[in-house]
Amino acid sequence: MRKPLVVANWKMNLDLKSGPALARDVADGLRRLDSHANVDVAVCPPATMLTTIAQVLSGTGVAVGAQDAYFEPGGAFTGEVSAAMVRETGATYLIVGHSERRHTIGHLEDDRIINLKLRAAQHAGLLPILCVGETLGERQAGQTLDVLTFQLTAGLVGARLTGADDLVVAYEPVWAIGTGLNATAEQAQEAHRHLRNELTRLIGPLADAIRILYGGSLKPDNADSLLAQPDVDGGLVGGASLKAESFLGIIRAAIGTRAK
Ligand code: PGA
């Protein structure tokens, strides 16, 4: 049985006034939801806000995560922060391999870098959220499942995989992120089922405990059908996480889906 997890990815948005205010609104709204104990929630703010948001959310049950960290433990890496530094802020999750880091930002991360970051996260006591997903071209060429197999397998080389506390996977089709186009429930379930089968191939029945989140234009009005799929265990939410009301709407949908 997997407890749903809903994660906010604020990306490079908000500031030291609006960020803590939103975090407070999310925590207050969550407390008022029936059965809020049946869902895990985390918020991933920009790195400069991690400590503040961790303090605001301390004791509320809402966890904090970072959007990135460098894989080296320390040294001459100007501009980077290590996974241990992230852990020190009070954060407990780390997003790795987000499509914007694979395809949009700076030097474009490859699967080797992503794997090193995932292992650094585990080493520092952070729960990695490994993002995988195909581009539109790859989907149109019929390569979706192969891309997912490759990114998952490459991302997990040498990782500790003993259960739900070691890994979260997020399926984020690149063509659905920030575009307003979401995967259909069937497309999401096909991808999630495939990822679960691949995890089973790697680690056996323990794969049943690992949560696989859907991300890509997830909103309150499409969350019910996506989150109800048997292998969809929650969401990684970008745009709709920037307003408490819409983020809470997705959390409500996650609570409403049957325990899987
Ligand atoms: P979106 O972003 O919800 O704005 O599509 C999702 C993500 O990038 O994690």
Q: Helix count, per DSSP?
A: 10
Based on the coordinates given, report the CATH architecture.
Alpha-Beta Barrel
CATH class: Alpha Beta
Tally of individual domains = 1
Write out the strand line-up for the largest beta sheet, numbering strands in chain order: 1-2-3-4-5-6-7-8
CATH fold description = TIM Barrel
Q: How is the biggest beta sheet arranged? A: 8 strands, parallel, barrel
Tell me the overall shape: globular
Helix % is 40-55%
What proportion of the residues form beta strands (DSSP E)?
Answer: 5-15%
Run of helices and strands: EHEHEHEHHEHHEHEHEH
Q: How far apart are the termini? A: 5 Å
Give the CATH superfamily. Aldolase class I
Class of secondary structure makeup: alpha/beta
Radius of gyration: 17 Å
What does the secondary structure layout of this molecule look like, with pairings?
Layout: E1 5-9, H1 18-32, E2 40-44, H2 50-57, E3 62-66, H3 83-88, E4 93-96, H4 99-103, H5 111-124, E5 127-132, H6 136-140, H7 144-155, E6 168-171, H8 185-203, E7 211-215, H9 220-227, E8 234-237, H10 244-256
Parallel strand pairs: 1-2, 1-8, 2-3, 3-4, 4-5, 5-6, 6-7, 7-8
Bound molecules: 2-phosphoglycolic acid.
